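Q: What does the predicted 3D structure of Germin-like protein look like?
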Amino acid sequence: MVFLMVSYLFAGFLLISPLFVMAADADPIDDFCVADLKSPIILNGLVCVNPATVNGNTFAFTGFENAGNTGNSLGSAVTEGFAGVNYPALNTQGLALARLDYAPGGLVPPHTHPRATEVLYLVKGQLFVGFVDTNDKFYPAYLKAGDVFVFPRGLVHFQFNSGNTPAFAIAVLNSQNPGVQLIANALFGATPTIADAVLAKAFGIPASEVDIIKKGFGA
C-alpha cells in the first residue's frame, strides 16, 4: 500500500515537474567562488581560486572607468564585466555586467541573450530602445538619463542613441554567461553560409540582394 502511494506521488511529480523547470544559473553552494582564469580545466562554470588568496579588493571592479571606442560602423561599444573575462568575483553569482557607449546615432543592433534577462540603466544621454515579443509585438521606449528598461530573457532587442550627444549605460544580466546572438550576423554571416534561396524567401527579397548583404558581413 505504501509502495503504491509513493508510486502515485512520484508519478504526479513527474507530471507537474515541467511547471517548475527554470532556465537559470545554478545556485552557488559556497559564499563565493572567485574564478581561476588560469585554470586549464573546462567545465560548466569556472574553477575557484583558493579562498585564502582572496581579499576585499578581489570583489571590486574598475573596468568601467573609461568609455569604449565607438569609432566603428555601428557607433557603439560594449565593455564586458564577465566572470570568465575580467571580473572573476562574479563566478557562480548568476550575474554579468556590461558598459555600453553610444556615439550620436550609435546602435547596438538587434540581438538576443538566450540565457538572461537584461536590465539597462541609462547613465548619460538619451536612447531609443525596444524589444519584440514572440507574437511580433514591438515594445519601444525613449529613455533619458536615470531611466531603467528591462529586456525580457531571449527576446530580440536593440538600443539606439537618438540624441545629439554621446550616451552611456550600464547593463546587468542575470546569468554568468548570458550569450549574445546578433540577428543580422547570425543569418547573413553564418559559417558555412545559409543558402541564398532560404534567406531570399524568408525576407521576400531577390537572391542577388541576399548575396550583396552577405558580402557586407564577410560571408
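A (community wiki): The C-alpha cells above were generated from the sequence. The first strand starts at residue 76 and ends at 81. Residues 2-16 form the longest helix (15 residues).
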